[in-house]
Automatic annotation (TrEMBL):
Keywords: Hydrolase, Metal-binding, tRNA processing, Zinc. It is an enzyme of class 3 (hydrolase). The gene is tadA. Belongs to the cytidine and deoxycytidylate deaminase family. Pfam families: MafB19-deam. Its cofactor is Zn(2+). This is tRNA-specific adenosine deaminase. Residues 1-107 form the CMP/dCMP-type deaminase domain. Homodimer.
Length: 145
């Protein structure tokens, strides 16, 4: 999670919403990293999770991220939760809960929907206070500035 927080800080420095993510392979090696880059790229799919999963898929040479772990500083939204299911990610580890758009247990629970063919294991609240503090700081400065 600390490595994901470092990615989130890169987003913060680029005036992007500070969310960072990484993908670990079966052995725990980082094979994909990402942070929000929607503003820079003008890409609505430029969420940290999507960026990291694309990089991981390229590293593995397949869209199937079976055996992989997605680590992200903020609970994934519906798009990112759905993408993690489609990519067959084995587990999702996230920090701060997102009560406004979270889709991994708070507002929605896309990844545990029994109607889907794949359901990743979820670990929530890892370094949650630190992850949330970075987001709070970002939005506080944005309102003041």
């Amino acid at each position: 999670m600390r490595r994901a927080l470092a990615e989130a800080r890169l987003a913060y420095e680029a005036d992007e919403v500070p969310v960072g993510a990484l993908v670990l392979d079966r052995s725990g090696t980082v094979i994909g990293t990402g942070h929000n880059d929607r503003e820079r790229t003008a890409d609505p799919t430029g969420h940290a999770e999507i960026v990291a999963m694309r990089q991981a898929a390229a590293a593995l040479g397949t869209w199937r991220l079976s055996g992989c772990t997605l680590v992200v500083t903020l609970e994934p939204c519906t798009m990112c939760a759905g993408a993690s299911v489609q990519a067959r990610v084995d587990r999702i580890v996230y920090g701060a809960i997102d009560l406004k758009a979270g889709a991994v247990g708070s507002l929605w629970d896309v990844v545990r929907d029994r109607r889907l063919n794949h359901r990743p294991e979820v670990f929530a609240g890892v370094l949650a206070d630190e992850c949330a503090a970075l987001l709070t700081e970002f939005f506080t400065h944005r309102r003041v500035g």
